[in-house]
Amino acid sequence: MARAKKDTVTNEMTMNPTNATMLVDRPVNFFEHGHEIPEKRNQFMKLAPGKNRIRFVGNPVSGFVFFGKIEREDGSETVKPFRRTESEGEFSLEEMINRDARIGKDGELEKQKYFVAGLVYNYQKEKLQVLEITQKSILKALKSYVDSDEYGHPSDYDLTIDKKGDGLNTDYSVVVSPPKPLSDEIETLVGETSYDLDKLFIGEYPMG
User: Fold this and answer.
1) Residue 20 covered by a domain
2) Alpha-carbon distance 6 to 131, whole Å?
3) What phi and psi values does residue 185 have, to the nearest 5 degrees?
């Protein structure tokens, strides 16, 4: 008798119209196309292959950066960036060795790089991100526009960085658009965003 009662309950649950309706009514798309799971590392913009259109917001920071190895809590190794302001000068070789600077494919310590980092509006992602530039070709092109009377500060115009190739064969070119004010939507987004680029120098995320 007990077995028959159990089978009856199971059949009732299986054939219950309410349960069937719940399954049918579930949305087809769990996430919208292009949805990103929030992660702090997504604060940083990574230049994608092809054209990357951006607008700098506010003033950038600059300095020197290299990557050193650190140990996680589980004992595994990872790398993290160590940064110093431009006014503090470059890291010494001893400092880089003491912080276990990453070794390159040639067996030598990877060289530190000069960088400029700023908050930018990423038109492709439609959001604000931090862009750190170490590529000399981009930096030289950017400086030429900043120094010109026609363009000046890059917060006044859009930049399109075109990335071609990969690895050691990667090339970058920079094209500027005519100066124009930011749209009201981007201005509002900037006003609602809290960030501190100086946090980069103490190993923290600039956007919290």
Assistant:
1) no
2) 62
3) -65, -45
117 is a domain residue: yes
List residues bridging with 85 in a β-sheet. Answer: 63
Q: From 114, 128, 127, select the one nearest 58 (Cα to Cα).
A: 128
Identify the helix (H) or strand (E) that includes residue 69. strand 50-71
- The pLDDT of residue 80 is 93
pLDDT per position as a tens digit, 100-144 = 999 988 889 999 999 999 999 999 999 999 999 999 999 999 999
DSSP character at residue 199: G
8 A C-beta contact, residue 54 and residue 122: yes
208 CA to centre of own chain: 13
3-state secondary structure of 24: helix
pLDDT band at 12 (very low <50, low <70, confident <90, very high): very low
CA 179 to CA 181: how far, in whole Å?
A: 7
Residue numbers of the domain that contains 160? 35-202
Domain count, the chain: 1
